[in-house]
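Worked problem 6 (solution included).
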Amino acid sequence: MLARRLSLAWILVACACGDGRSRPPPLGAGAADAGPDAGRDAAAPDAGFVDASTKPLIDGSCEYHSVASRRVPVRLYFVVDRSGSMKEVVGQRRKSDALYTGLVNLARRIGHKGEIGAAIFPFGGSCNAGAEVLPLQPGDPRSFFDAGKVGPVAQNLSTLLFAAPPEGGTPTASTLVAVRKQLGGAPTDTFVVLATDGGPNCNFNSSCGPEGCMANIEKQCKVSNCCDPAVNPLGGGPSGCLDDGPTLSAVSSLASVGVRVLVVGIPGSEAYASLLEAMAVAGGAPRPVSPRYYRVDDLEQLEGVLSLLGDAIPASCRFDLDAPPADPGLVNLYFDDEVVPQDPSDGWTYGSPTSLVVHGAACEVLSSGLIQHAEVFVGCPSVVE
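Solution. The predicted structure is:
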């Protein structure tokens, strides 16, 4: 990451204003007469609104000040299966323990990219839809992960997950319907990570033959159809049918409002591989090769698979402005004290009159979590590569 940062620094030093006019100085140079914090909010986080400065920075040829801008966060929302089968021990680890630990480590590693939230299912009853346990909130800074520490957000996620022992069925469809109401329609990149160890069920309005009865599919049924009350009066009945149609519909509904769904199948889900494959495709963020979902055949592979998933989630490289600048040619983007050139390859361009999009090496540096402040300034000619 340091090499990438240095690479960007070389770009910043090498660039020059395209029209020959004076370029803005590094922020530290202009701030000498106005005070150490002039023109910026020193406590402002990398994401969130940055208040416009009340005191311009002056370098003798132009004066400039920050404007209200917001880095659009990526939202990562875990939807976690805590059904009774998650109690099972595979190798020497309980499935729920391995999954919870893996998701917490994923949140530690990529939490700096945006916001983290989580829901578990079922909640409050064996076939009740899931419920949120961690509201969306900014993830921990990259510094915690680099120091080998667990930040407060990741620690809270861990506490909440491990406080929910496995029980009940797998009401995936009703849970995703609830998640859509909560996440849909937001103007930002949102990813749901759906992690499960089996097929969805808990639909009391369904009916199925033996080919759709999960007990039959898993070869745990000693009668012709364990989901038929007439044949198996003591069985689970319709709630034991594979709830594939409604679940696929719920995944597609999330994707239709811009919420992409990444599907993780851990040991126990093998019999439902074709359904998980279809869910991954419908969710709009499948793996580029088969299997299209993130398949975990051995719990020892879980951390590695989740690492690949984390790499597939991009950090946000877009900034929204409260209002369009009066002169689009007098806008500059700063990473800490360094100006980023206007450049479609390794700098920034306008995505719209009120948004800046960062590209290439500059986006990589921003995604690394090493940038403490990213701010938009107006007043001096844009630095152009």
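Discussion: Residues 1-23, 28-58 have pLDDT under 50 and may be disordered.
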